[in-house]
Amino acid sequence: GESVGLHLPTLSVQEGDNSIINCAYSNSASDYFIWYKQESGKGPQFIIDIRSNMDKRQGQRVTVLLNKTVKHLSLQIAATQPGDSAVYFCAERGTGNQFYFGTGTSLTVIP
Amino acid sequence: DAGVIQSPRHEVTEMGQEVTLRCKPISGHDYLFWYRQTMMRGLELLIYFNNNVPIDDSGMPEDRFSAKMPNASFSTLKIQPSEPRDSAVYFCASSSSRTSAPDTQYFGPGTRLTVL
User: Please, are residues B107 and B92 in contact by the beta-carbon 8 Å criterion?
Assistant: First the structure.
């Protein structure tokens, strides 16, 4: 079956620095990927998505990079702020409308 | 607009008891998803519905779990009988195929279930 894994379970960054969160996926046929942010006690919240026909997509302070050759996805957060502290999940779309989520990376921003 | 609503937010029960979790999706959304989240396994899709019809329930762990969607604005996830290993946070999410972002799922706040 499909699996999505994260390279680092925890990440600490200084406020104002850039953050990079990585994700590996296993299904080369996956055509769509989403990054979610989950704050303590809340449900996951959509951040940014990317389709497999793209290799980069930018949002407000966030950029997602997709490397299909090595099946790797990354989320870059510019000028990280304390409010960015959360757990970040990548998810890939498999068959039908199913999404498979990684276990998450916990980002801590140090003031 | 109100987001996805789940109830209860917390549920503590004893092993063997029946548990019913409830979800109200965002109005107009035609997809509804039930997920379970644990530290060990992360977010797992249990079942999803399209226009109130179950499409894929392959993630439902066993027959003790059942889900229904009697109408477009309500769904339940039932566990009978509950076991300690069912302890987790259960999320409901919804999405709409009729928007410019049909794959974006909106999650509810979750129900934290503890089975003693």
Answer: yes
- DSSP 8-state code for residue A9: S
Is the bond preceding residue B84 a cis peptide, omega within 30 degrees? no
Which residue in chain A has the smallest CA separation from B104?
Answer: A46
Q: How far is CA B99 from the centre of its chain?
A: 22
B111, B56, B57: which is closest to B86 by C-alpha? B111
Cα-flanking dihedrals φ and ψ of residue A5, to 5°? -125, 155
Residues of A with a Cβ under 8 Å from any B Cβ are 32, 34, 41-46, 49, 89, 91, 93, 96-104
Q: How far apart are CA A85 and CA A88, in angstroms?
A: 9
Residue A49, token pair as written in the block? 């998505």
Confidence of residue B1 (pLDDT cuts 50, 70, 90): low
Structural contact between residues A16 and A71, judged by C-beta atoms closer than 8 angstroms: no
Residue numbers of chain A with a pLDDT score lower than 50: 1-3, 6-8
Q: What is the pLDDT averaged over residues B102-107?
A: 85
Check: CB of residue A67 under 8 Å from CB of residue A50. no
B4–chain A nearest CA distance, Å: 10
Distance from CA of B56 to the nearest CA of A (A): 9
Which SS3 state, helix, strand or coil, does residue B84 take?
Answer: helix
